[in-house]
Fold this protein.
Amino acid sequence: MIRIGVYGGSYNPPHTGHVLAAAELVRELKLDRLLIVPAATPPHKTLPAGSPSPEERLSMCEAAFAGIPQAELCDLEIRRPGKSYTVDTLTTLREQYPADELYLIMGTDMLLSFRTWREPERIAKLAKLAVMHRTKDAELWEEVCREADSLKREMQADILTVDNRCISVSSTVVRRLLALGAPWCLEPAVEAMIRQNGWYLCGAELKGLPYDRLREVSLELHDEKRRPHVIGTAETAVKLAELWGADPEAARRAGILHDITKALGKNEQLHLCEKYAMMLTQRQRENPKLLHAKTGAVVAREIFGESEAVVSAIRWHTTGKPGMTTLEKIIYIADYMEPNRSFPGVELLRELVWKDLDAAVYQGIARTVQHLREKGKLVDNNSLEALAYYQNLTERSQPK
Ligand code: FE
Ligand code: FE
């Protein structure tokens, strides 16, 4: 009897996180073989348009896991038509390996959604469930233990856990960084394949795209929940540009790109900074929320080839600064009061911005500074200087 791990996924693309986890699984579960099973059509998600074909993902897996002797490619799901249900895969594997031990590898999120899968009871009979977890999140861990206990009771599932001390990275993030010209967490051979084939917009010419295409690419790089906000910012910015005499085309490009790196976490932000040789202060290093304006500006320039006017509007959209250009002010305030934003007083600000742009900017900065102070957070120097500058400007323009 041998021990066989079944490690499925979209592998779109396979990254270093997968490879390190595979090595850990082999070691911890004492696996004789680890089957890497790329899904043809995952049942729970649709792959983004333009993703490599299942066969191409399979060949990336071949390159990625080449260094792990126990790893073995399994094209069962790719050869089977229709959606890739785990229960079908395990049924076939059970027939192939009637006397061996099968371990279905899953993440904590998968265990928590296990009941919604097709025929979970049968899956639990066909294989042991090996849950990879990160011990950092105590609350999640408790939830996982509770769910594991009830699955054991209700389905007689055999569940074991594997400490995953490996890096935290997702294929979505890897794809985004490839498009932004900063490959991340890829085995060199996989990266070379991606580059050669131009997958995931890697090496694509994205400079000077027509607006519709720019919008499409930008939205693909955002999390779904942020998409309405960037669309709202772009549309609001155009209207404000028409009213206040800025270039509406520049306004909508800056609007749609202003949060282009917002979906990236702290480590990925720092990776972009390194890639583009950006100098950072200690505060910026510790506060990735502020970093997205800086990295977004660099990406707008280097990847999308935007004008300096657009680049600097993105650069200053979170903190503001004294003496902003009309476009900078427009992006600052459009980001703040576009139709998807809701906070007490937003309606007043929306009225004010059509009458007095500087006064609206002042209100926006003042509210932000107040909000940060109430939360006990440090306020960026640029914001403080901008606050004083626009307060002064607004007071001076007030009728005596
Ligand atoms: Fe932002
Ligand atoms: Fe924003």
